[in-house]
Write a structure and sequence with these properties.
Blueprint (H helix, E strand, L loop, with lengths): L1 H4 L5 E4 L2 E5 L4 E5 L2 E4 L2 E4 L2 E5 L4 E12 L3 E11 L4 E11 L4 E10 L4 E4 L3 E5 L2 E5 L1 E5 L4 E11 L4 E10 L4 E4 L3 E4 L3 E5 L2 E4 L4 E4 L3 E5 L2 E5 L1 E5 L4 E12 L4 E11 L4 E12 L4 E4 L2 E4 L2 E14 L19 H28 L13 H16 L21 H20 L6 H20 L26 E15 L2 E11 L4 E5 L3 E4 L2 E4 L2 E7 L2 E16 L6 E14 L2 E18 L5 E17 L2 E8 L3 E6 L23 H6 L18 E3 L17 E3 L4 E3 L23
Parallel strand pairs: 41-43
Antiparallel strand pairs: 1-4, 2-3, 3-6, 4-5, 5-7, 6-7, 7-8, 8-9, 9-10, 10-11, 10-12, 11-14, 12-13, 13-15, 14-15, 15-16, 16-17, 16-18, 17-20, 18-19, 19-22, 20-21, 21-24, 22-23, 23-25, 24-25, 25-26, 26-27, 27-30, 28-29, 30-31, 31-32, 32-33, 32-34, 33-36, 34-35, 35-37, 36-37, 37-38, 38-39, ...
């Protein structure tokens, strides 16, 4: 408004020809040059209305303002009082940072703002902006665009409803629905900013990033294009439809180079499966939910991973065969070691005079003593081992036996060399080399040479293997890892999962709950097949615990390895292998505890049907003992016992919020059908039983039905009718 108040006259500086109409005071000018304030205006011809401080210009119109703004067009109407220029036909506005082209442009000389409404384009180095309406601020180098806005850069194409662009800073600001399309990705937002030069960006409303099958949502997204780093804040949702991956949290980071995403703050992950559960007579997918302090996911080359095979169980008649073979090998090694030690002693045994010389005459004894003395001062070379009579096994060869052969060889060569002063140093070196060769031959044997053959040369051209280019998803979880599925729950310090073998790996103090039992070990693996849970395996120090109404009486099983198999989402059988030990509490017909049963065997086998344990089978070398309930031993817990029901997740909510609160065990008991027990102890064994009702979720009602993790209903075992059998 300040400029509007300071009116100045338009000055005709020069022209090639001037015609004046004296009646109207209108000037007709050829090649005029006009000036007002710091602006110069030229054209091929003009009609100058001097009294109105106004002129019309035709052809080759050129406005120069402050030596920074240049505007060209075919026609111009200029109002000197308002200092407004209306340009039409082939309009081009140029400043040091950009060029604006349009068909009609209104430019305010006072505010230095240009406006178009019939479509225009701004070109700024590598950036091209087009829109239906636009405003350009020459002073601030800002351009404001409205309707059908398109920004094209070498990296992306931006389409928006409302947008502002600064040609000096290269920052683009979005004020409405906007899509940023890259070479292989797209970002939607309704509020944000993007720098076309640095590729840095911020998005703050209804943000959605998509790349092929992947998508990312977040209340706020930050992206640094040059380094390929992104950050998402609050209500983060990462989805990959190719493997039905769902990752949520409150803070996330993305690294484009290796397609890696890291999520923290209430981070949890959902993996779709083909298992299903029934809620209100309707089957719904049984999703696996995984939570941790930190979750990391990315696509990696499959050949860089160490994949696991699904567990294969030995047949019952093969159990213990490996242990027996290892025992035999150990005994064989001991025998070979004794033979090698005897051979070493034979080499080192000193030569002494015959004690029978004492029976000789004085003269003969004197000669014998002198001979013994000479032998002591100059001992002969030790006798070498006859390789045709002494056999040294390469498989069981010990260090001492190697030394024996080497010592004999070295001593023999040393004595020979001492008698040949003319032997040179290089021959000594050769002799030492021969010693090394002899030791190598003793350990590895002699490799025969094949006449007429040469070593094969490696092909300089590498064979292309398509499998080397296959990429697969991996999930890493760190600290306070929690897993919930209707038929399985778990907790650990860390976890690794890859879609290549569909296996969850739990590390450091893992605990697995399944079918009413708690299992612990050094490492736990859970295998999926065709998107359904297939099996699990507890490696090293496997321990399984179950408790009933009396929380002081724990049913326990331990072994080196525990393996369980599922079918259609339900446990079918389970094996405890390697020094399998168990403690079970049995009950009488009245439901009262009567005995504590202890057993040891090579394997304990559990069979399930309809989520209930039906059979227990003890395999090979089964031994047991029964203690009446009123005469229990002092120690009723197996070594390595752990019982942590309060840590068990009981719903998806526990996965999201973190460590679940402690839960109170129910006192309800129910009598189930009898369970067959096959074992050596005729008193009967109390089996581990599954929970009757797993946790299920009802999405339609937004609530869950929790399992009671510390409670297992008792089973009545009629030992008078049970067939007792031991399998050895």
């Amino acid at each position: 408004m300040l400029f509007a108040q300071q009116r100045t006259k338009i000055e005709l500086v020069s022209s090639d020809r001037l015609t004046v109409d004296t009646k109207t005071n209108v000037n007709y000018v050829i090649n005029p040059v006009f000036r007002q304030d710091n602006a110069t205006l030229r054209s091929d011809s003009a009609v100058f209305y001097k009294d109105r401080n106004y002129f019309e210009a035709f052809k080759n119109v050129h406005i120069n303002q402050g030596d920074t703004v240049n505007i060209y067009s075919d026609f111009l109407n200029y109002d000197g009082n308002a200092k407004k220029a209306h340009l039409s036909s082939n309009v081009k506005m140029i400043d040091p940072t950009s060029t604006l082209t349009t068909n009609i442009l209104d430019y305010n000389m006072a505010t230095r703002i240009g406006e178009y409404s019939t479509g225009g384009k701004i070109v700024n180095k590598d950036v091209v902006l087009t829109s239906k309406r636009g405003w350009y601020f020459a002073s601030s180098k800002d351009a404001f665009f409205r309707y059908n806005v398109v920004v094209v850069t070498p990296q992306s194409t931006i389409k928006s409803d409302t947008l502002r662009y600064n040609t000096l800073t290269n920052w683009t600001y979005f004020y409405g629905p906007t899509n940023i399309k890259g070479k292989d990705d797209n970002l939607y937002t309704e509020d944000g900013a993007y720098n076309t030069k640095s590729e840095n960006a911020y998005f703050g409303k209804k943000n959605l990033y998509t790349q092929n099958t992947k998508s990312l949502k977040g209340d706020s997204l930050y992206y640094y294009g040059k380094i390929g780093y992104g950050k998402a804040v609050k209500n983060i949702v990462f989805i990959d439809t190719s493997d039905r991956t769902l990752l949520r949290g409150q803070l996330g980071e993305y690294y484009k180079a290796d397609e890696r995403a890291v999520v923290t703050k209430n981070a949890y992950f959902g993996m779709g499966t083909k298992d299903s559960i029934t809620v209100n007579n309707k089957k719904i997918p049984d999703t696996l939910w995984l939570g941790a302090d930190t979750l990391e996911t990315q696509k990696v080359l499959q050949h860089t991973l160490k994949l696991l095979n699904k567990p294969i169980i030995q047949k019952d008649n093969e159990v213990g065969a490996e242990d027996e073979k290892a025992k035999q090998e150990k005994e064989k090694e001991k025998v070979e070691a004794r033979k090698a030690a005897a051979a070493t002693e034979a080499v080192k045994k000193p030569i002494v005079a015959n004690p029978d010389t004492k029976k000789l005459s004085k003269k003969e004894r004197k000669l014998a003593e002198q001979k013994a003395k000479d032998l002591k001062n100059n001992p002969p070379p030790p006798k070498l081992l006859d390789s045709t009579k002494v056999k040294i096994s390469t498989d069981s060869l010990k260090a001492d036996s190697i030394k024996a052969v080497a010592l004999a060889s070295v001593q023999n060569k040393t004595i020979v060399l001492s008698k040949k002063d003319s032997v040179k140093t290089d021959k000594k070196i050769a002799a030492k080399s021969d010693d090394k060769k002899a030791i190598s031959t003793a350990v590895n044997g002699v490799k025969p040479k094949i006449a007429g053959t040469n070593p094969l040369k490696k092909d300089s051209v590498a064979v292309f293997n398509p499998a080397d280019t296959v990429r697969t998803r991996v999930i890493k979880a760190f600290h306070n890892v929690r897993v919930f599925k209707s038929n399985m729950q778990a907790k650990a310090d860390s976890l690794f999962y890859t879609a290549a073998d569909s296996t969850l790996r739990w590390y450091k103090n893992p605990i697995l709950w399944s079918e009413g039992t708690q299992q612990t070990g050094d490492t736990i693996h859970v295998f999926f097949k065709n998107d359904k849970i297939h099996s699990f395996q507890v490696l090293q120090n496997g321990f399984l615990v179950n408790v009933e109404t009396d929380s002081t009486k724990f049913n326990q099983v331990k072994g080196k390895k525990i393996t369980g198999f599922f079918k259609d989402g339900e446990m079918r059988n389970m094996y405890v292998d390697g020094n399998a030990e168990s403690i079970y509490y049995s009950k009488d017909d009245k439901g009262k505890y009567d005995n504590m049963n202890q057993s040891v065997s090579s394997r304990i086998k559990f069979l399930f049907k309809d989520k209930e344990l039906t059979d227990i089978l003890y395999i090979k070398e089964a031994e047991g003992a029964t203690n009446p309930i009123n005469k229990l031993p002092k120690e009723t817990l197996l070594t390595g016992f752990i019982w942590k029901p309060e840590l068990r997740p009981v719903s998806k909510a526990d996965i999201i919020k973190g460590k679940p609160a402690a839960k109170v065990a129910s006192k309800t008991t129910t009598t189930k059908s009898a369970v067959k027990v096959i074992g050596r102890d005729p008193s009967g064994i109390k089996p581990i039983l599954p929970a009757k009702k797993p946790v299920v979720e009802d999405p339609s009602k937004g609530r869950t039905t929790p399992i009671k993790p510390a409670v297992v209903s008792p089973v009545k075992v009629d030992t008078t009718k049970t067939k007792i059998q031991s399998v050895n």
